[in-house]
């Protein structure tokens, strides 16, 4: 679990200034990391506290965090890029009904590509996305 203080330290360690906008986003990322927030949802939350913050600023801060390996963007097919503060290798569970996203650790070494399957392609990362229904949506569907 990433903390706002960890994000602050990364920024300062990279010689970057922690502005009020950045500090706010660091806190919001810490609070919302379990839901893998989109830039738009972070912007809505930030604008409640800082009405002058723009979506462009939110995207810029997220890009800076990505450059510092503090978050990674995810395209999970949910309609908007989501951001994951867990940068260790892992996969995701995505609910097809409510769009919730959860981290799950899957041993990906069990599905390696053989050299002839790669055809000269250097694999740097392997992710797996499981789609289905979360427990809450399954419970509501059976009620």
Descriptive report:
With 143 residues, the chain is α+β, with helices and mostly antiparallel strands. It has two domains: 4-82, Arc Repressor Mutant, subunit A; 88-142, Ferric-uptake regulator, C-terminal dimerisarion domain (Dna Ligase, domain 1, 2-Layer Sandwich). Helices cover 41% and strands 13% of the residues. The protein is built from six helices and five strands. It has helices at residues 4-13, 20-32, 39-49, 55-67, 115-118, 135-142, and strands at 72-74, 82-84, 91-95, 101-104, 129-132. The strands form two sheets. Strands 4-3-5 form a three-stranded mixed beta sheet, with no helix packed on it. Strands 1-2 form a two-stranded antiparallel sheet. The model has no long low-confidence stretch (mean pLDDT 89).
Short description:
The chain has 143 residues and is of the alpha+beta class.
How many strands appear in the DSSP assignment? 5
Q: What is the CATH class name of the largest domain?
A: Mainly Alpha
Could you list the spans in which at least 5 consecutive residues all have pLDDT below 50? none
Mind telling me the CATH superfamily name of the largest domain?
A: Winged helix-like DNA-binding domain superfamily/Winged helix DNA-binding domain
Shape: globular
Instruction: Write the CATH architecture name of the largest domain.
Output: Orthogonal Bundle
Mean pLDDT: 89
Number of structural units classed as domains: 2
Tell me the strand order in the biggest sheet: 4-3-5
């Amino acid at each position: 679990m990433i903390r706002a203080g960890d994000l602050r330290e990364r920024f300062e360690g990279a010689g970057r200034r922690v502005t009020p906008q950045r500090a706010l986003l660091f806190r919001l990322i810490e609070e919302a990391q379990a839901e893998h927030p989109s830039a738009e949802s972070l912007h809505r939350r930030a604008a409640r506290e800082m009405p002058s913050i723009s979506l462009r600023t939110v995207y810029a801060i997220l890009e800076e965090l990505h450059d510092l390996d503090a978050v990674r963007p995810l395209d999970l097919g949910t309609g908007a890029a989501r951001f994951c503060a867990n940068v260790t290798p892992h996969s995701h569970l995505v609910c097809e009904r409510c769009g919730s996203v959860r981290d799950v650790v899957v041993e990906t070494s069990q599905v390696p590509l053989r050299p002839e399957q790669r055809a000269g392609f250097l694999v740097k990362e392997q992710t797996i996305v499981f789609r289905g229904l979360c427990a809450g949506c399954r419970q509501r569907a059976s009620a």
